[in-house]
UniProtKB/TrEMBL annotation:
Coiled coil: none annotated. It catalyses: a D-aminoacyl-tRNA + H2O = a tRNA + a D-alpha-amino acid + H(+); glycyl-tRNA(Ala) + H2O = tRNA(Ala) + glycine + H(+). Its EC number is 3.1.1.96, 3.1.1.-. The gene is dtd. The keyword Ligase does not apply. It is found in: Cytoplasm. A motif (Gly-cisPro motif, important for rejection of L-amino acids) lies at residues 137-138. Signal peptide: none annotated. Pfam families: Tyr_Deacylase. Belongs to the DTD family. This is D-aminoacyl-tRNA deacylase.
């Protein structure tokens, strides 16, 4: 499982001109799944996302997590994160979880996060989404389990 997290001042997902998910200050999280991902991996990543310290404290040190700043989490399924880009000039998607499996994993991941935190929005798996955000910093981290 791969999550690309971006500390943001705001973020939203539009589909066909309609906003389906939006947050103010928080983090936009692009989520990709690999064939070996399972519930234990989802659990580990959910814990990491909710506790990862990427927000500044009173001394301007990254010591606070999204919950401590009452920030939003915008989860966006993005299968291309798991693509194999090691050779050639075209990505291979053989390293990505199959679509039906990835969709189920995304649903399970959403359930894990929303059962532990209220300020969560998301995109829609398989949709043609337009993602907008204002990256704060910029601060971006690649998390992989």
């Amino acid at each position: 499982m791969i999550c690309l997290i971006q500390r943001s001042l705001n973020g939203k997902v539009d589909i066909a001109g309609k906003t389906v998910g939006a947050i103010e200050k928080g983090m936009v999280v692009l989520v990709g799944f690999q064939p070996q991902d399972n519930p234990a991996v989802l659990e580990k990543m959910a814990h990491k996302l909710l506790h990862y310290r990427l927000f500044a404290d009173e001394n301007q040190k990254m010591n606070l997590n999204v919950q401590q700043v009452n920030g939003g989490i915008l989860l966006v399924p993005q299968f291309t994160l798991a693509a194999d880009t090691q050779s050639g000039l075209r990505p291979s998607f053989s390293s990505c979880a199959p679509p039906a499996e990835a969709e189920q994993l995304f649903r399970q991941f959403m359930e894990l996060i929303t059962s532990r935190y209220d300020l969560v929005a998301s995109g829609i798996f398989g949709a043609d989404m337009q993602v907008s955000l204002t990256n704060d910093g910029p601060v971006t981290f690649w998390l992989q389990t």
